[in-house]
Amino acid sequence: MKKVFCSLAFLACAAQAALAAPSVQAVHLELTDEDYIPCDSSLAAEFPKGMPLGIGSSLAFVSKKPDGSLVFLGISDRGPNGDTPLWRDASGALYPTKMFPSPDFTPTIATITVKGDRAKLSDLTLVRDEKGQPISGRPVPAGLTGSTGETALDVNLSALPFDVNGLDTEGIDIARDGSLWICDEYGPFILHLDSKGRTLEKYGPGSGLPEILARRQINRGFEGLCVLPSGKIAAVVQSILDLNGKVKKAPRRSSG
Fold it and tell me: Which one, of 174, 161, 208, 160, lies nearest residue 188 by Cα?
């Protein structure tokens, strides 16, 4: 009986889809001068206003206004970064690196209002730690939960400081009381924020979350999150866990 029910449900869904084919509409995001990220002065020729804020790592629906406008919350990732050669420390060991042209960038939440084929940002909110201090997207130091082994470099390929609170934010959703839940790829971590972006709670592998999540692949932690009707939080990792340390990785590039 269950198989018959599932088949009928599938056919009903297929028939409904045929009657109302989905459509996709392109929306142009209009940026103001405040929606650009300051970057190294050496990049001024290419980015005279700074780098445009990338706010689409995740979206959470907020409301529909009387005029038909749709309101969302969006969150950025860890900020502009690019692949760079391996880093060789004093002992000769090689480490993966990332170049951060805006090393002080703080993962940012914004309200996105969509009307017709136009969208605008407002109410930019920085993600902050428990003390209210802005965090960055730079990697977590080695030996701490969330470390990826990456070394952050500036545009001149000089080492940048680590951030013990660093986050590579990916998912966002809204609780019934208006507070926010976000997730990241480093830990992977789940954070509970107030409406101003300040951290109320932070959970990581072995600290509120299953310890096995520490086996996430580098840069393959939590990619999405939602608040269930029950109030529970559900999050999903981007790739399979590397339980045996045998997941094939891309070849390392020589630093010369």
Answer: 208
Return the DSSP state at 67. T
In DSSP notation, 165-224 reads T---EEEEEE-TTS-EEEEESSS--EEEE-TTSBEEEEEEETBEE-GGGGGPPTT-SEEE
Q: Is 71 helix (H, G, I), strand (E, B) or coil?
A: strand
Which residue type, as a one-letter code, is found at position 40?
D
Tell me which residue of 157, 141, 138 sits closest to 149, measured CA to CA. 141
Spatial separation of the C-alpha atoms in residues 52 and 246, rounded to whole Å: 38
Beta bridge partners of 60: 73
Rounded to an integer, what distance in angstroms lies between the CA atom of residue 79 and that of residue 102? 7
Tell me the per-residue pLDDT of 49-84, one tens digit each, with 9 for 90 and over: 999 999 989 999 999 999 999 999 999 999 999 989
